[in-house]
């Protein structure tokens, strides 16, 4: 949500006469700059927060918080699963402990944003409330991801897909924050962290898994297809068959505008020459909201 807009809304709600000086101060702070506005938030929240932001940023925050809660549950379950932890190389356990801490921090950040806006964040679901077998806590349903909490290779394969999807989901929500520079910057920074998480998990699959996978450090068309794969509704809609999350990463070119492509091959020559196709495909692509929501529902 736009913090300036929020401050104006809070300052406009009906309140006791004693709050009038605060309402005027909030109007002034709304024009004083982002730093002053943020500093004033605790005082602003002392007012009756009858106004609720209607910006699309609220929807974006909720999706990203759901994503972070899911990842917290994923790594919490993994680190508490005896059979899985017994198969994780001792040197690798700190990696997943660090990932868990960072996901917890991300979830805490989005909850603090909601609280600062006068919106009660959703309660934290226990990790046991998620089912990463894909059965949705119903044993009558087929097990979509067998062995994910008992077998290290199966766990890494699902971890890679979730982390890859996370980077894409963050990109897919960028447009929700275009009117709020602070949240836009935070979202972009967190998206970079997600991409690093995904790259690290891919490196683990390539170097430490019992069955080494020839995956690159970024989604590539030459990666072996994950099996089982996370599938989401096709962008074609209707009765079209579900598609892999990697179908949204199929771009081999990057466009500046319209049909004008970034000329990697022409620009990066001589001593700076690189595999231009690899550079182009290394850019993350956004996962649309519809597909992101469907992915989150698989495990929730």
TrEMBL record:
Parts forming coiled coils: none
Entry-linked Pfam families: Ferritin_2
Gene3D superfamilies: 1.20.1260.10
Transmembrane segments: none
Domain of life: Bacteria
Stated name of the protein: Ferritin-like domain-containing protein
């Amino acid at each position: 949500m736009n913090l300036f807009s929020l401050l104006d809304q809070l300052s406009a709600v009906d309140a006791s006469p004693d709050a009038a000086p605060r309402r005027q101060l909030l109007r002034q702070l709304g024009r004083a700059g982002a730093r002053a506005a943020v500093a004033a938030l605790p005082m602003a929240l002392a007012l009756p927060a009858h106004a609720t932001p209607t910006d699309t940023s609220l929807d974006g925050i909720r999706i990203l918080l759901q994503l972070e809660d899911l990842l917290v549950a994923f790594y919490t379950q993994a680190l508490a699963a005896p059979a899985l932890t017994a198969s994780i190389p001792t040197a690798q356990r700190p990696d997943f402990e660090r990932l868990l801490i960072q996901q917890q921090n991300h979830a805490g950040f989005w909850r603090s944003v909601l609280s600062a806006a006068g919106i009660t964040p959703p309660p934290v679901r226990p990790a046991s409330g998620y089912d990463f077998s894909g059965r949705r806590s119903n044993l009558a349903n087929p097990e979509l991801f067998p062995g994910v909490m008992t077998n290290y290779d199966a766990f890494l394969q699902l971890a890679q897909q979730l982390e890859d999807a996370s980077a894409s989901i963050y990109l897919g929500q960028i447009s929700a924050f275009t009117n709020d520079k602070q949240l836009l910057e935070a979202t972009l920074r967190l998206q970079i962290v997600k991409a690093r998480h995904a790259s690290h998990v891919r490196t683990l699959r390539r170097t430490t898994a019992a069955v080494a996978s020839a995956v690159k450090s970024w989604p590539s068309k030459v990666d072996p297809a994950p099996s089982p794969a996370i599938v989401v509704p096709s962008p074609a809609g209707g009765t079209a068959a579900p598609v892999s999350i990697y179908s949204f990463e199929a771009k081999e070119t990057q466009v500046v505008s319209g049909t004008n492509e970034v000329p990697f091959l022409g620009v990066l020559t001589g001593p700076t020459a690189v595999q231009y196709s690899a550079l182009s495909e290394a850019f993350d692509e956004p996962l649309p909201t519809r597909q992101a929501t469907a992915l989150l529902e698989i495990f929730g």
